Amino acid sequence: MEAVMGSKKRWRTFRLFSVLSLLTATILIIVLFSFWLWIKILGPPPLSIPQSTLYYASDGSIIGESNSGEKRYWISLDEIPPHVSDAIISIEDRTFYSHHGFDLKRIAGAMAANVKAMGKVQGASTISQQYARNLFLTLDKTWSRKLLEAFYTIRLEVNYGKEEILEGYLNTISFGHGAYGIEAASQFYYGKSAKELTLAEASMLAGIPKGPGIYSPLISEEKAKSRQGLVLSAMEATGAISPEEAKVASREPLFFIGKHPHHQAEIAPYFYDTVKKELKDKVGLDDRSIALGGLRVYTALDVKQQDIAEKAISETISESTDIQAGFAAMDPETGYVTALVGGRNYKNSSFNRATQAVRQPGSTIKPLLYYTALEHGFTPSSILKSEPTTFRFSDGQSEYTPHNYNNQYANGEITMAQALALSDNVYAVKTHLFLGQDTLVDTIRKVGISTKMKKVPSLALGTSGVKPIELLNAYSIIANGGKKVEPVFIVRVEDFRGKVIYEAPKFNEQVLKPEFAFVLSHMMTGMFDKKLNGYATVTGASVINQMSREYAGKSGSTNSDSWMAGFTPKLASVVWTGYDKGKEITLTEDKLYAKNIWIRFMERALEGEDEKEHEFSPPAKVVAIPVDPVNGKIATNSCPVFRLTYFVRGTEPTEYCTDHLHDSQVEPAPSKKEKKKRWWQRIF
């Protein structure tokens, strides 16, 4: 009986133990699953390590860098040669691909070794643990830090694949001398990218993280060489390399640079400042993300053009003068700003005169006025009188008297083409008032100029200020046939992992009519054409002998400003020169600075370029007619000079010039056959 009772008691105990064990196991599974689920919900730990932000020119060269004093350049695992990864894994964590964040066998072995030595002589941190430690940027040895490190290690393993963890580790580990990550280390020690590392170079670098202050070859080449031997032996033991490869690598001579790449903004500092400002204003990034976010900022800067612009300014403006300069160049088709100079000396003044200064543009505003006139029925042959004129207005009290340069006037009729080439102020004001003062403002806004415009008669002469970059954008729209563009400094921004977070917008809006834009462009070539000389010489006469191709342009001046802006279909640029405080420019030489800087830049920037790509190609809706440049009528065989001039089809002149016929001569009316094929068509 007692035996039966004992058996039942044991059975109940066994059943209770089984239930408790099952309950415990269930609770443990629930806890573990809940912990795993919580880890998944939390997601991967934030990458809090600052990374160097790099700025690239259009050719891929680095023009600037921002960092915290530590060089950190993130590159993908695909860009790192396999022997680099193999070297690191072999010496740091051979079981990396098989463990789940912790190598229990190594931990036990390390504990035994440390107890035996009565001190820490061996570590057992895996690559995952070291990566987690790197994310904290702290090396304190408190238990709370160690627990958090373990927690982060689990989060890494649960949320990332092994390849992602390895990539993060290779990009964050310290190699000494302020170099963090394999790319920064490769650049510092060898002056090359990590993708170019040989086995010998990689094995040398792999030995450094154990103790950068001990195993850096710049501190002790002997210890570094010994450590490299251990790395190669480890690689051989894991089968990553053959004994022969290890032997060759150990004998390969290595040459160390010991210098970080110099990524200071030595060229284009004003451009660099503008890019950083646009990262905030257009991309929407904060200061820390910009400085330490590991961004790759791809800009539109053309290094060659930038160098040409800086040299053109420095060699043109006398060192003895305080005159300043603002310069910008742009690709009219894309809006890409390819060069920018905000002043003569960035160290003395970081104020950007190309993007921040608002100055009176003078006659450089006239092309926008004459575009407006073309849209309202004017043509290059439209005639108005150039003579001293006082305009009196309907209020009976106000009046305005514009003056031409040096008070020179035709005292007769001139064409719009000649008025633009000679920069006749009376013609411009008459046109402006005829069109209505709101009309020019509308056109100015169409081409992206946002500065305040006063609706006054003198607006036609550029008395309302603009920024040089705005004027350049307006001229680029004329150059590209009337399509909207905006100044683009930043083409693309990528985060440290290569994900595109910003791309410059592309526009397809037609803001000016292409046929009128082309007619205006051709009119603007007139400032360099002596055929349009009249009561004065064309305004570009002083630089004609420096030209090797056709340009469209317009100069402008006020008492304290000198401007020159112009373009080919592929390149536009603008120059402003003057005193910062608006002091009057008095010397003739000083007044020529803008034109000389502009032509020197354009000629050098386009040297060697295919001339056909920079030729002005007329659209279908325009027609070329040879006209007498004085009266704008169709030129005949009797005209001593004619200029091939473009008109929107249907607006071309129909009257022939008779000013050069003798009294006894009468120009015969053209026959029907001749009308079909004019003499200039047979010649050209």
TrEMBL record:
InterPro entries in the record: Beta-lactam/transpept-like, Glyco_trans_51, Glycosyltr_51/Transpeptidase, Lysozyme-like_dom_sf, PBP_transglycosylase, PCN-bd_Tpept
Transmembrane segments: 16-39
Superkingdom of origin: Bacteria
Subcellular location, record wording: Cell membrane
Keyword tags: Carboxypeptidase, Cell membrane, Cell shape, Cell wall biogenesis/degradation, Glycosyltransferase, Hydrolase, Membrane, Multifunctional enzyme, Peptidoglycan synthesis, Protease, Transferase, Transmembrane, Transmembrane helix
Location of the Glycosyl transferase family domain: 60-235
PANTHER family: BINDING PROTEIN TRANSPEPTIDASE, PUTATIVE-RELATED, PENICILLIN-BINDING PROTEIN 1B
Name this polypeptide is given: Penicillin-binding protein
Species per Swiss-Prot/TrEMBL record: Siminovitchia fordii
